Design the sequence.
């Protein structure tokens, strides 16, 4: 699928496909965009991918992946604040959508690398940004994983919430808002090739790092188990912000390869 094949055959060297293989194929059909079984015999399954690369742009898919991760993070934190396991489950369910977009991005990046004409069709003037886009996509997929971990903390915590005072919870949610802002800005800097925005991302990260340190230093006394849960949430949010900085670094490289207020390309 990632290599861009339109038809994939799953066959058994021993003649008959076992149930485990058949079930895996049908799971993949639901987890990958545009995939469908078109032929099935006891010995072979044929799967067709109907995705037309020209129906997508890499920039749009990056924004969709960032939005999905941000929504997961919002739902997971709201679930944790209000002790709402249904919201946490909703965030976990979105993780499948994030993976689906991520793997589709890999498919388009690989096929565009092989075909320069396709690179232009999906919104790129050349194949130069493709390696950077691959890294950005992976970073965004990892931020969705961190949101998933927060949702799992909610489901596993006693009462599905953190045993902390309202003021501390409010500070953590405000910290989450800052993380949401930096991740969105970093992707925007990639899409728009805006070097000034990459500078802003780095400035925001310094503030986020300082805020995390203050939160950890000023946490009121609580049980060890609750403290561990709070630290896991804060560390996951800070690591999400670190991925945003990595994306901004990639955006800076892309921006400096084009004419702008900062550079002139002869």
Sequence:
């Amino acid at each position: 699928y990632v290599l861009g094949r339109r038809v994939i055959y799953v066959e058994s060297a021993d003649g008959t496909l076992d149930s485990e293989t058949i079930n895996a194929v049908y799971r993949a059909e639901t987890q990958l965009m545009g995939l469908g079984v078109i032929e099935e015999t006891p010995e072979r399954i044929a799967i067709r991918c109907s995705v037309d690369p020209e129906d997508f742009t890499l920039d749009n898919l990056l924004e969709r992946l960032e939005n999905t991760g941000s929504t997961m993070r919002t739902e997971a934190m709201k679930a944790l604040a209000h002790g709402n396991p249904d919201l946490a489950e909703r965030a976990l369910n979105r993780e499948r959508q994030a993976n689906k977009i991520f793997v589709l991005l890999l498919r388009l990046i690989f096929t565009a690398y092989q075909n320069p004409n396709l690179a232009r069709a999906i919104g790129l003037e050349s194949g130069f940004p493709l390696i950077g886009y691959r890294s950005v996509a992976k970073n965004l997929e990892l931020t969705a994983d961190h949101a998933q971990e927060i949702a799992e903390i909610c489901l596993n915590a006693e009462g599905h919430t953190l045993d902390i005072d309202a003021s501390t919870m409010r500070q953590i949610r405000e910290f989450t808002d800052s993380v949401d802002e930096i991740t969105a800005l970093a992707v925007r800097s990639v899409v728009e090739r805006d070097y000034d925005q990459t500078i802003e991302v780095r400035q925001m990260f310094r503030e986020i790092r300082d805020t995390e340190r203050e939160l950890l230093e000023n946490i009121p006394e609580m049980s060890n188990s609750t403290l561990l849960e709070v630290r896991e949430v804060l560390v996951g949010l800070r690591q999400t912000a670190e991925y945003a900085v990595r994306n901004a670094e990639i955006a800076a490289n892309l921006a400096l390869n084009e004419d702008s207020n900062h550079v002139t390309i002869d």
The beta strands are 7-11, 35-40, 44-49. The chain has a mean pLDDT of 92. The two ends are 40 Å apart (CA to CA).
